[in-house]
Amino acid sequence: MSATAACATRHDWSLAEVKALFEQPFNDLIFQAQAVHRQHFDANRVQVSTLLSIKTGACPEDCKYCPQSGHYNTGLDKEKLMEVQKVLEAAAEAKAIGSTRFCMGAAWKHPSAKDMPYVLKMVEGVKALGLETCMTLGKLDQEQTKALAAAGLDYYNHNLDTSPEFYGNIITTRTYADRLETLSYVRESGMKICSGGILGMGESLNDRAGLLIQLANLPEHPESVPINMLVKVKGTPLADEQDVDPFDFIRMLAVARIMMPKSHVRLSAGREQMNEQMQALAFLAGANSIFYGEKLLTTGNPQADKDMLLFKRLGIQPEAREEHDDEIHQAAIEQALVEQRDSKLFYNAVV
Ligand code: SF4
């Protein structure tokens, strides 16, 4: 398939076609993905979001990868729903260091009627700061989706996680159909969709292809497609899963880029465990979005500084919502470079 042919936005991918993409020689796949990427995006821009957990742990769902599930003992500190003011303070900090989107996540099966007014206030407040808003709160009904859209929520994150065939091995408390229903309500309400999955849960190539087919064959592609590498947490049932071959992970990003050419493909969870060379390869394969993560909100976070340094070294600019944000972010990068110049971190490309 030529890069141009692959670039057409399609919603009718078959398993055989997608497997053929995966099974190409690595260089051919990356070349094709990069060619597709350049037809829709500036290849040297990456969108930056900040993620904040607004309610942590004790989730009634049993997602086998998740340390927040109440079904597993992972020693995680449980926290109640954060106060609105604290969320807004965190959002203001995220904006100050250049994030353009603020994502708020709550470990719920679904938001309760009692919590919804607070959640809506958070959306309104973050939006008023001039940030794009994103939330992940579990299953939604139609009333809730409408209320969130009316409050100014731009994106709703609800991952499909894996293929329909493998899904029952990972989650038993919520069905695949429930997930698709929530996505359809989000779409109906006019919000943008953020939906992706996880590699490294013991799934097969067919399952990886099957996940991408589910996403790409939706009536509209999700605007944001997070591809996560399993973070193996002690106490969860997947703690001892085998590592994914890093090249297979890059292949997944490349195939996602080809199948959903206009979507932001996000290099998501697990990025902290990837070395800089692998992250650079991910950007080459068409990943163009990252999370800084909530830890950035504490001062002197070395991970955040490393991210800024990596951008600088690769000549990548953060994708700006407005030019003003871009300038702030660039200033933050320059500042980080000055501060890190004499530290070990500055010279260490691999850690
Ligand atoms: S629904 Fe979300 S927070 Fe709850 S266990 Fe699953 S992944 Fe974790």
TrEMBL record:
Binds 1 [2Fe-2S] cluster. The cluster is coordinated with 3 cysteines and 1 arginine. It catalyses: (4R,5S)-dethiobiotin + (sulfur carrier)-SH + 2 reduced [2Fe-2S]-[ferredoxin] + 2 S-adenosyl-L-methionine = (sulfur carrier)-H + biotin + 2 5'-deoxyadenosine + 2 L-methionine + 2 oxidized [2Fe-2S]-[ferredoxin]. SMART domains: BATS, Elp3. It comes from the Bacteria. Residues 44-262 form the Radical SAM core domain. Its cofactor is [2Fe-2S] cluster; [4Fe-4S] cluster. Its EC number is 2.8.1.6. Coiled coil: none annotated. CDD domains: Radical_SAM. The keyword Transferase applies. Keywords: 2Fe-2S, 4Fe-4S, Biotin biosynthesis, Iron, Iron-sulfur, Metal-binding, S-adenosyl-L-methionine, Transferase. [4Fe-4S] cluster binds at C59, C63, C66. Pathway: Cofactor biosynthesis; biotin biosynthesis; biotin from 7,8-diaminononanoate: step 2/2. GO terms for biological process: biotin biosynthetic process. GO terms for molecular function: 2 iron, 2 sulfur cluster binding; 4 iron, 4 sulfur cluster binding; biotin synthase activity; iron ion binding. The keyword Metal-binding applies. [2Fe-2S] cluster binds at C103, C134, C194, R266. HAMAP family: BioB. Catalyzes the conversion of dethiobiotin (DTB) to biotin by the insertion of a sulfur atom into dethiobiotin via a radical-based mechanism. Homodimer. Belongs to the radical SAM superfamily. Biotin synthase family. This is Biotin synthase. The gene is bioB.
